[in-house]
Amino acid sequence: MEAYLNRSIKKVIKEFPPVEKILDEYAIGCGPCAVGLCLLKDIVSIHNLPADQEQEMMGRIASVIHPGREIQIPRTERKAEAQPRELKYSPPMKKLVDEHVLIKKWLALIPGILPTLNLESGGDRQLIREGVDFIRSYADKFHHAKEEDILFKYFDENLDLVKVMCEEHKTARNHVKAIGEALERKDRGTVVRRLNAYRELLSQHIKREDEIMLPWMDKQLSVSQVGEVFSRFLEVEERMDSCQQKYGDFISRVEKKYKRKED
Ligand SMILES: [Fe+2]
Ligand SMILES: [Fe+2]
Fold first, then answer.
1. Contact indicator for 39, 9 with CB cutoff of 8 Å
2. Residue 255: helix, strand or coil by DSSP?
3. pLDDT tens figures, 59-96
4. Distance 209 CA to ligand 2 centre (A)
5. What is the topology classification, in CATH, of domain 91-262?
6. Ligand 1 centroid distance, CA of 88 (Å)
7. 183 alpha carbon to ligand 2 midpoint, in Å?
8. How does pLDDT run across 149-169, given as a tens digit for each residue?
């Protein structure tokens, strides 16, 4: 069992598919993760389930990996006793969670935009151009930069969780580049496919950040580090002063337009 704890979760799931369903039942959604670098032991430790639930879950995983054998379940190291799953964030983490809300609004608009998208129409081309600008400037330059250039610097860059998140940012950038290029060629199929892929990726990414990464990072940082992160976030906000207003207005405008279409 120890050997499997040190194996990447994707490999464990590939070899023993029922493990994905067991993790799912404990709200640990590793299946859809596109990267899957995390080790089984890290996943168990990061989620910090109550001890009895963790033992129960590990017992079930052990019985899938070693059917019919009595297995000693190793305990994971605990930073603190698990709390009921009410998510609380420090002020800088709360800022990131609030920014996710605007990004999720854009993701929620995509399924309404795509079915009637006509790249021969100047209006539709402009909408996708503005959507790409929102992703590049707000989701990436403003938000992901806070994560990568500030928050993640407080952690080991070789940490699986950090590597997975950066890898997903990179994949998202590739989708956006492809959308921008396809838009110029009026290649509707690629725009639709890549926007859907972006939506799928970012929805899972944000969920993992909100529910796993940010609460876990909060626990690792000292009070003074949290203060430092907060003031460095403020610097970015000052530097990109008009960003929040501009892109907040963009999302409201698109929401109004597509809400009217639904009515
Ligand atoms: Fe992120
Ligand atoms: Fe994020």
1. yes
2. helix
3. 888 888 888 887 777 666 655 555 555 678 999 999 99
4. 6
5. Four Helix Bundle (Hemerythrin (Met), subunit A) (1.20.120)
6. 18
7. 26
8. 999 999 998 888 899 999 999
